[in-house]
Amino acid sequence: MSKKFGVITIHGMGNQNPDYASALQNNLYEKLSGEIIRNLCFKSIWYHGGFQAHQDKVWENMLKSGRPLDQQWLRKFLLNFLSDAATSEFRPDEKESSYRRIQHTILRQLDALRIELGDQDQPVVIIAHSLGCQIISNYIWDAQHKKGIWQGRQPSEFQKLSTARLMITSGCNIPLFVSGLEKIEAIHKPNDLFKWYNYYDRDDILGWPLKPLSQGFQNAYDDVVSEDIEINTGWTPFSHSDYWKDDNFIAPVTDIINSFYGSL
């Protein structure tokens, strides 16, 4: 029997393993009913790939240089995190760029998800964290505007994520990537039933509300994002890493998925 809907996750910055979403999946499954679990297909997009090996090499070279560097722990932390962000946005028009490699990674997982959904354009729930919010937004934007890997190609409706009914972002840092633009536009709503819920913690310096980014025109963030929801995942800036294991996030996301499933 084919599944009724798919859940895809995409991770954020830092040294991520391929099983990065296992804790999130387990936490959700503890709260979702057996019926819902039987009718969903869970897929994780792991784009980190070779990033870490390159970052580790740069760090080793810095240490071997013999030049004194204070705050080494913080420097390495920032190197890993900020390098992910910079590399993921680098040279989007080049075929062999990291930007396009990441988009192809997303596409492969979407194609695999559709097969497991019985080759049907079933609804999709997107759960993204940190840099993953910007990356999945880029993917949808490019598919809608035939940019990136879609230059000269036509994505299917499922590949465009036109069946995405929910996008749930956490610790979202999209403002860091768009704040220098004169006109800040969000993606087009993939469909009339689409809802975008953005969770942030005021202590998380990398997580932001999105609706204030732009307003007053079609595809402004205030129009496309359904709700910015403040939660408490900790009391320090390091709360950025805690969304997917905190019940202040898991509980409302479970409620959203329950409500969504009831509408299918």
From TrEMBL:
SUPFAM superfamilies: alpha/beta-Hydrolases. GO terms for molecular function: hydrolase activity. Keywords: Hydrolase. InterPro entries: AB_hydrolase_fold. This is Alpha/beta hydrolase. It comes from Pontibacter silvestris.
